[in-house]
Amino acid sequence: MTFKEEMKERTEVIEKLLVKYLPKAEGYQSQIMEAMEYSVMAGGKRLRPMLMEETYKLFGGTGKIIEPFMAAIEMIHTYSLVHDDLPAMDNDEYRRGRKTTWNVYGEGMAVLAGDALLNKAFETAAEAFSMIGEAADIAARYAAVAKALQILANKAGIYGMIGGQCADICAEELPADHVTKELLWYIHKNKTAALIEAALMIGAVLAGASDEAVKKLEQAAENIGIAFQIQD
């Protein structure tokens, strides 16, 4: 099997997983559910959940407890794109060759779709608690899921992705000579690298890796994120 074939196969597995955790469009709020699915299933490399699963396996992780977190991190990544595309942000009408969420469902519904995906991400990740079972090391497993949730929240929030997006918006108002190397690094480390850091760290934590190993993975993921941004 070639690398491209392997990537395609793994991407399809992840997309089936996303469909499993996305809500069915029904009830008075069905349109928001349609907008959520439209946004998440718009394509993409599925890099973050893929890296999370590979890291989990690298440290000896087995079982499906990683799956809710795989779906959750892709929901968070997608919500950030939905909001980035809004007229108030980047004002993009197309992404990956098709209309952006706001261009199909309207600005208000796109805001709600992003909000809903962020909230659904944590609902989904929290399902890992119900998958722990009656293992002998049950306390350690509960602690690992709690730590993974903490990492996800931190890397997605004001000290991670949102912090980087905030700095990016503020930088647009600065004179060119005020946009320093340190500021650019901060933007890219947080806006781009933070969720990659979360992916590797969560995979390792749920597999029972040491704190030292998790810290090294965080640094490696930062380097990957910066390299990705430079190439982009």
From the alpha carbons, calculate the radius of gyration and give it in angstroms. 18 Å
Instruction: Write down the oligomeric state.
Output: single chain
Number of strands: 2
Mean pLDDT: 94
Number of helices: 10
**Poorly predicted runs:** none
Shape: globular
Major sheet, described briefly?
Answer: 2 strands, antiparallel
The spatial strand order of the largest sheet comes to 1-2
- Share of β-strand residues: under 5%
Q: By helix and strand content, what is the structural category?
A: mainly alpha
**Share of helix, binned:** 55-70%
Spatial separation of the terminal alpha carbons: 27 Å
SSE string, helix = H, strand = E?
HHHHEEHHHHHH
Produce the secondary structure layout:
Elements: H1 3-21, H2 30-40, H3 47-58, H4 67-84, E1 94-95, E2 98-99, H5 101-105, H6 107-126, H7 138-156, H8 161-171, H9 181-206, H10 211-231
Antiparallel strand pairs: 1-2
Descriptive account of the structure:
The structure is a single chain. This protein has helices at 3-21, 30-40, 47-58, 67-84, 101-105, 107-126, 138-156, 161-171, 181-206, 211-231; strands spanning 94-95, 98-99. The protein is mainly alpha-helical and 232 residues long. Strands 1-2 form a two-stranded antiparallel ribbon. Strand 1 and strand 2 form a beta hairpin.
Quick summary of this structure?
By secondary structure, this protein is mostly helical.
Descriptive keywords:
single chain; 232 residues; mainly alpha; two-stranded antiparallel sheet
